[in-house]
Design goal:
Pfam family, one: Sigma70_r4_2
Domain RNA polymerase sigma-70 region: 17-83
Number of strands: 0
CATH superfamily of the largest domain: RNA polymerase sigma factor, region 2, helix turn helix motif
Keywords: Sigma factor, Transcription, Transcription regulation
CATH architecture of the largest domain: Orthogonal Bundle
Order of helices and strands: HHHHHHHH
Domain RNA polymerase sigma factor 70 region 4 type: 115-166
Structural class: mainly alpha
Protein name: RNA polymerase sigma-70 factor
């Protein structure tokens, strides 16, 4: 699908539109509680998808790329809305700014939690079990070692590797969301 979109295949674009239009609309509506923002974001997302189709990559799923476009489009719309209100009133409504910031913070937190959960789920079974026991069940390395029949050093190694893996996910997330 991505290759066909990059080549400008309108029938594939139409198919993608029908598959994702409602999903994006409902996702944005759920986050903002604003039908106007949901519709505007959805429309602009598909306009951008068509305009920037040549920059699509095979490295990420189409779903991921479309929802990333939707998210950045929503952020742009919220910023424009805040700027418009600021110019009209000469002083932005702090409540509105805080509401928008809250929506964006909530979206970012949910997305980060999903990425972290996915990273934990993809850990090797023993590492995942050690990490879960350490960070979620608040067990000491000695307790984990005794429970699993491992040495304390092995448990510490698993925790170190798990944290390294999660740190990499966090760094990628921050790079994608700050720049």
């Amino acid at each position: 699908m991505i290759a066909a979109l990059k080549e400008g295949d309108e029938s594939v674009f139409e198919s993608v539109f029908h598959e994702y239009h409602e999903k994006i609309y409902l996702y944005i509506l759920n986050k903002t509680q604003s039908p106007y923002l949901a519709e505007e974001t959805t429309q602009l997302t598909f306009i951008k998808l068509w305009q920037y189709r040549s920059s699509l990559t095979e490295d990420y799923t189409l779903f991921t790329q479309i929802f990333r476009m939707a998210r950045t489009t929503l952020i742009d719309l919220l910023r424009k809305q805040d700027k418009r209100q600021s110019l009209q009133t000469k002083s932005p409504d702090k409540t509105t700014l805080m509401e928008h910031a809250s929506v964006l913070d909530k979206m970012a937190a949910e997305e980060l939690q999903k990425k972290l959960n996915h990273a934990i789920d993809t850990m090797p079974p023993v590492r995942k079990q050690v990490f879960t026991m350490s960070r979620m069940q608040h067990m000491s390395t000695k307790e984990i070692a005794d429970t699993l029949g491992l040495s304390v050093k092995t448990v510490e190694g698993h925790i170190t590797q798990a944290l390294k893996q999660l740190r990499e996910v966090l760094i990628v997330f921050l790079i994608l969301h700050l720049f």
